[in-house]
Write a structure and sequence with these properties.
- By secondary structure, the chain is mainly α.
- The chain has one domain (22-465).
- Helices cover 79% and strands 0% of the residues.
- The protein contains 17 helices and no strands.
- Helix 12 (329-356) packs antiparallel against helix 15 (386-402).
- The relative contact order is 0.14.
Length: 476
C-alpha cells in the first residue's frame, strides 16, 4: 500500500513532526498537557457519580454497589485495553515511519474489532450480572443494585469500545487537543444526566444507582459521535471509511495487544479477589458494606492522582512509538524518562494532599463515620506509593508504544498474585488488621511494581522492537 496520505500532501502533521524532531521537553509537554486535562475531565465522572450517589439516603449501599459493579466491568475493559495497545503501537509507529495509509488501515481494523468484541463481551455481563457481583463479594441489598449497574452499562459496551479505540487512534497521531475537546463535551453531558437521573429533580424520578448507569451509557453513545467527528478531521480521516475486514492486520493487532489484555485482566481479576477478601472481614454485612464503600470512595479520590499518571502514560505511547518508527530509539528513551519525571512530581504532590487532609476529602462523598475512618487509612497508606505508581503507569505506556507488552504482564502477575493478594489475606484476615491491612498490602505491592517497571525499562531491550520495519502492508 502507498505510504502517503491521499487527502493531504503532508505525510506528517505538526504534532508528529514535533514528537520526532522537536525539542523533547516541549514535545512531552505538547502531548501531555491536553491529555492530563482530558483524562481528569473524563474520569471526573467517577468523582461526580460518587458525589451524587453520596447524596442518596443510605448512601453506603449505592457507593458499595458502584465499586463492586465497576470491578466487574473492568474485566470487560481489559479486552479493549488489549486492542488499544495494538492500535497505539501500530498507528504511532506507522505514522512515525510516514506510512499514513497503513496507519489508517490499522485504525480502521481496530475500530471494527472494537465494535464486534464490545458487543459480544456484553452478553455474559448482562445475563449473569447478579451471580457475578455476588461472587465478587456483595451482600444483602447491595447485590441487586450492583447487578443493575453492571447490566445497564453493559448494554452500551459496543459504543464504549469504539469510543476508547477512536481516542487511542487520535492520541497515537499526537492529536491530544481533539480528545480534550471531546472529553469536555462528554463530561458535561454526563454530569447533567447524573443530576437528572440519580437525584431526580422536579418531574424526573430518583433512579439512584440505575440512574448513574444510564447516565454513563447514554453519555458514551454521545461520545462515539463526537470522537469519530474529530477522527474524520485528523490525519487518520480515512480510517472511518470502507470497513472491509483484513484478517492479517487484525492478527497483528492481537499479537501486539494480547499481553496488554492479559495484564489488564490479571490486574482486574486480582482486584475482584481483593474485594472478595473484604467480604471475609469479621463484623457482619454492615461492616463489609462500609469497607467496600470506603474502597469505592478511596479509589475515586485517588483517581485525582493517578489520572495524571494515566494521561502521561497515554502521552508516552506516541512519544515512544513514533520515535521508534522514525528510527530514533535514544530520543524515545529520553522522552519516556522526561514524561515519567513529570508524572512522579504531580502524583507525589497529590500524595502529600492525601496525607494532610484525608478526612476532608472523604467528607465530600459520605458523612458515615466508619466509612470516613476507613477512607482516611486508605488515603494515607496509599499516598506513600504514589511516586512508584506514577513510574509504573508512564513506563507501561512507553513500553506499549514499543509494542513490548509481555514484561508488564509478568510484573502485574507477580506483584498482584504473589504479593498483594497473599499479603492482604495475611494482614487483613489472618492477623486481623482488617481494612488497614488490606490497604497496606495495596500500597506495598504498588511500590514493588513501580520498582520492577523502572528496572525493566532501564535494561532497554524494548529499544530493538520495530514493528513497522517488518510490516510491508496491513494484510501481510
Amino acid at each position: 500500500m502507498s505510504s502517503a496520505n491521499p487527502i493531504s500532501p503532508k505525510t506528517r502533521s505538526d504534532s508528529i513532526e514535533m514528537i520526532v524532531s522537536g525539542r523533547i521537553s516541549s514535545a512531552v509537554w505538547h502531548i501531555a498537557w491536553p491529555t492530563v486535562v482530558n483524562t481528569l475531565i473524563l474520569n471526573a465522572y467517577n468523582v461526580i457519580n460518587g458525589i451524587f450517589l453520596g447524596m442518596l439516603p443510605h448512601s453506603q449501599d449505592p457507593l458499595a454497589a458502584a465499586g463492586v459493579g465497576g470491578a466487574a466491568l473492568m474485566m470487560q475493559f481489559s479486552m479493549v485495553m488489549g486492542l488499544a495497545a495494538g492500535t497505539g503501537a501500530l498507528v504511532s509507529q506507522f505514522l512515525g515511519a510516514e506510512k499514513n495509509s497503513d496507519a489508517n488501515e490499522a485504525a480502521r481494523q481496530s475500530l471494527l474489532l472494537s465494535a464486534i468484541i464490545g458487543g459480544l463481551s456484553a452478553i455474559p455481563l448482562i445475563v449473569w450480572a447478579l451471580p457475578l457481583v455476588k461472587f465478587i463479594g456483595t451482600t444483602g441489598a447491595v447485590s441487586p443494585l450492583a447487578a443493575d449497574y453492571v447490566a445497564i452499562i453493559s448494554y452500551f459496551a459496543a459504543p464504549t469500545f469504539i469510543y476508547m479505540i477512536a481516542l487511542t487512534a487520535l492520541r497515537s497521531a499526537g492529536d491530544m487537543k481533539s480528545a480534550l475537546y471531546a472529553g469536555a463535551v462528554i463530561i458535561g453531558v454526563n454530569t447533567l444526566l447524573d443530576w437528572l437521573l440519580i437525584i431526580g429533580p422536579g418531574p424526573f424520578p430518583q433512579m439512584g444507582i440505575q440512574g448513574a448507569a444510564w447516565a454513563t451509557g447514554i453519555s458514551r453513545v454521545f461520545a462515539v459521535g463526537v470522537t469519530l467527528w474529530f477522527l474524520k478531521r485528523s490525519v487518520l480521516r480515512d480510517s472511518i471509511l470502507h470497513f472491509t475486514p483484513h484478517t492479517g492486520l487484525m492478527r497483528k493487532i492481537f499479537q501486539i495487544g494480547w499481553p496488554a489484555m492479559l495484564t489488564n485482566f490479571a490486574w482486574t481479576f486480582a482486584y475482584t479477589i481483593f474485594i472478595k477478601f473484604l467480604s471475609f472481614l469479621p463484623g457482619g454485612a454492615v461492616i463489609i458494606t462500609n469497607v467496600q464503600a470506603a474502597l469505592t470512595v478511596g479509589m475515586r479520590i485517588e483517581s485525582l492522582s493517578f489520572m495524571p499518571g494515566m494521561a502521561y502514560s497515554q502521552a508516552a505511547t506516541p512519544l515512544i512509538g513514533q520515535n521508534l518508527g522514525a528510527g530514533k530509539p535514544d530520543r524515545a528513551t529520553r522522552s519516556a524518562w522526561i514524561a515519567t519525571l513529570h508524572a512522579v512530581l504531580i502524583m507525589s504532590a497529590f500524595g502529600i494532599v492525601f496525607l494532610v487532609v484525608p478526612a476532608q476529602l472523604a467528607h465530600a462523598f459520605t458523612r458515615d463515620a466508619s466509612v470516613v475512618t476507613s477512607v482516611v487509612w486508605y488515603l494515607r497508606l496509599n499516598a506513600i506509593s504514589e511516586p512508584f505508581l506514577a513510574a509504573n503507569m508512564v513506563l507501561r505506556g512507553a513500553l506499549q508504544g514499543a509494542g513490548d507488552n509481555m514484561m508488564p504482564a509478568i510484573i502485574t502477575l507477580v506483584t498482584n498474585y504473589a504479593v498483594r493478594l497473599p499479603l492482604a489475606w495475611f494482614l487483613a484476615i489472618y492477623l486481623n488488621y482488617g481494612a488497614k491491612g488490606a490497604w497496606a498490602a495495596m500500597s506495598l505491592s504498588t511500590i514493588m511494581s513501580g520498582i520492577l517497571m523502572i528496572v525493566w525499562f532501564q535494561m532497554g531491550r524494548w529499544r530493538n522492537r520495530h514493528i513497522v520495519a517488518h510490516t510491508q502492508s496491513p494484510i501481510d
